[in-house]
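On clarity, I found the account of how folds are encoded harder to follow than it need be. Since the whole study asks how a given chain folds, the encoding of that fold should be made plain. The format is easy to grasp once an entry is in front of the reader. For illustration, here is how one protein appears when written out as sequence plus structure tokens.
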Amino acid sequence: MIKVTTVLSPDELEAALRSIGAERYHNLHPFHKMLHGGEMNLGQVQAWALNRYVYQQGIPIKDYAILSNCEDKELRNIWRQRIFDHDGLGDDIGGIERWLRLCESLGLDRDYVKSMEGVHPASKHALETYINFCRRAPLLIGFASCLTELFAPKIHKERIAGMLENYDFVDDSMVGYFRERLTQAPRDVDFALKYVKEHAVTIPQQQEVIDALYMKTGVLWAQLDALYLAYVSPGMIPPGCFVPEDHQAAAAQ
């Protein structure tokens, strides 16, 4: 864990934040290594897409929570683009709809996905933890918690290449969400990182910024821990959660 003992320069602060991703971003999780490496069956990929939907639909809610602590109109106008990216605006269907189409292409029923009925409770609790953190956090810390976007393009590139190459049930039309994020995430992080580097100027502020990124990487990692235990080993699917075999049998009827 990074402990700030002297004020870091803006570049030193950025280096510290990037080191967290190199150590703790969820592209390093065994579940994602299996997913991107073609080591999963259809049911396991369905379970991942279903559970990840909880996080995807919660992103605009998280961003509204952050904006509830923002009194600056100009900052709100910049940040709300993130909400449009996921909720959609005009001709852009948005990231949530793209994710629903991915789930449908994997054979999941749209209404079932939207109901979140079969989602692992740990996925729900992880998202709730993140949203509540953003609701209570000062604006600077809320912005800092979003800096996992520093590392997002790498995971999206891995996912596009790995899933297209390794799964015959995935085609190019199904990875639209990830392609959009290749341009959206760098734009978002340019703003958030610049803001954090300019406004985290004391030891307590810099420590809080670093701790916020630790928290966020923990949220993403915890979701995958739950999925690994439920759908990989030892197969501990909680009562009421998505069971691939049952879902596929019902779809075949």
